[in-house]
Every structure is written in structure tokens, then in C-alpha cells.
Predict the structure.
Amino acid sequence: MFRLFVLPLLLLCACNGQSKNDKEQSTENIGVDTGLCIDNTEETNPPTSTQVDDTVDNSTDSDVHSGPLSEAAYQALLASGILVQEADVFTTSYHEGYNLNFEITQDQARSLLPENLTPVKMKILASDPEPLYYLSMYMAVLDSNESPFSFTRIDLFTYAANESDELALNFVSSFMSMPDAITSNEELFNLFKEMFDFFALDSQTGKPAYPHYYTDTLFADHDTFNFAFNESYIKLSACEPVTQNERLASEFVMANSQIYRTAIDKNVNYFNQSFINAKVETRNLNCVEYKNLGGFHPMLKDLRSIQFYGSKDKKITWYYQMCTKDDCTSPFN
């Protein structure tokens, strides 16, 4: 059976059993009209991040949680409606996004990889004259039709081949900005942090395989982006694309089909032509301003290219499985 975990954005919408229409008609128990339901009926108590209806028992034997996610975060997932029990496949969607590609050496690439992966040179676009060793950033605006929220995330990764000579990415770190409605609620913010750490899980240590960093300055749209963390920043000003209607190189697409985070833990990804045949624009590097790129990662020095693809009007959706070795069953069991 093909079972689906719908993960539009890890949004929590547990509202004491209310339907969407009920929530729209009854707002006295909603602290902020964001789809996150906060009980403000008792002014002496701080608002809670999620409300789980314990008056209706829909549990089965399979609802008993024994996985690595904490019970609180797991119950938040169950209450949100985005988790289908025993799901094996997840989804995530994004709109506009940028690839930023920094050339590194073979030795540098090797130092970022587990021993069973080999660094490879990569073409990003089909028209690239030659492949290079890269440390790349992908900056994407993630959102959902179900939610007023918009998240922007950057993943930092390099390119590799596994023991079977299959192309892959290997994640190094991630940066993320989250809406004020989440960051202003400590309990909710910590739940989201825990969930994002879970999706970076090292199955051997039970800890994240790579770090997540959080920033207030991370924005991207069709024409510009602005990313700052501590004393480092990089931003793109609006200017005409250098080229349009480019296509991603086939090897780049294949590498995106599996993303390692440890020697044995990876995501296996499935996507359609919204990604495979995406129309890509290259941006003018003369329109980029940056300072102290090494603050994002010490190897980020030689920016070689920036590509943009995506649209506000059409989501790019990926389906993926979390796998350890060849076992891609649900990590929630």
C-alpha cells in the first residue's frame, strides 16, 4: 500500500476538535488568527501552543508512540492532521528558490562527506561548460495553501556518489526563518525546532546529523533575496537575468533524488516535471553584495553562479522517504 505523510509545512492546527468553518466563526479561543489555535480563555495562564481534544478517543494500538520524537511533538503532529499513522512517504512543497554555487576543491568536498561517499564534480545547468566541485546553497520559500505562514529555508550541501556510483547530495547545514507567530511562542518554537531536528536525524546517535540555525533575516522572491546570520550577509538586488529558459542538468536532477545526512541515513526523493523540467534563470553576479561569507561556512568563498527557478503560481512538490540503509519504513513506528 502506498501511504502518504502530508507535510505541507509542519503546521500545527489542533483546535479542540473544531472544523475549519467552526474556527472561522468562533475566534474567542484563538490568540492569533494564523491557524495556530491558542487558548486564551484563562488570562492567568500563558497560552499553549496546541490544543488536543481529549474528549474523543480515536486512538488505536498503532497510536502508541515509541519513536525518537518526544511525546509532546509527536502528539502535536497527530493533532495537526498532517500525520497519517504508519506513513512511509512525506511531501514538501516550495515556490520560488535560488541555487547559489560556490566552487571548492576535491579535498574540501571529501572532508564534508562520510567515508562511503565520494566527491563528484557537478554541472548545475545543462548548458554549463564544465562540471566543478561545489558547495551549494538552496534557498526556498516554503508555504502551503492550508496556511497563512511562509517559511524560508536554506540548505547547504555538496555533491557525491555512493558505493553504487549513484549520484547524491550530502547535507552540511540548514538555516531557517520562522514567522513571528511561532518564534514569539517559546513552547511552539521549541516544538518546531525539535521537529526540524528530527528530520535531520542520525539514526545511530539519535541526534541531528547536521545543525539548524535560525535567523530573522532570510527573504527571497522572484527578483531579490536577503540573507544574514550574525555578522555575515549576502543579498541580491533586482536586475535583468543573464539567461532565461535554461534547464537543470540531468546529473543535478539525479543527485537531488537522494540526500544523505550520514553514511546510512538519507532521504530518497521523488519529483515530477515541475522540478525536472523547471525553467531556470541565471542571475548577474554583479548584482550580488556580500560580507564575511565564511560566517555561513568556512568554505564559502568563490561564488560561481546563481540560478533562480519556481513561481508563486505553481508549487514544486517533492515526495520523499526517510531511509536508514535500505529500510524506508516509517520512522514513527
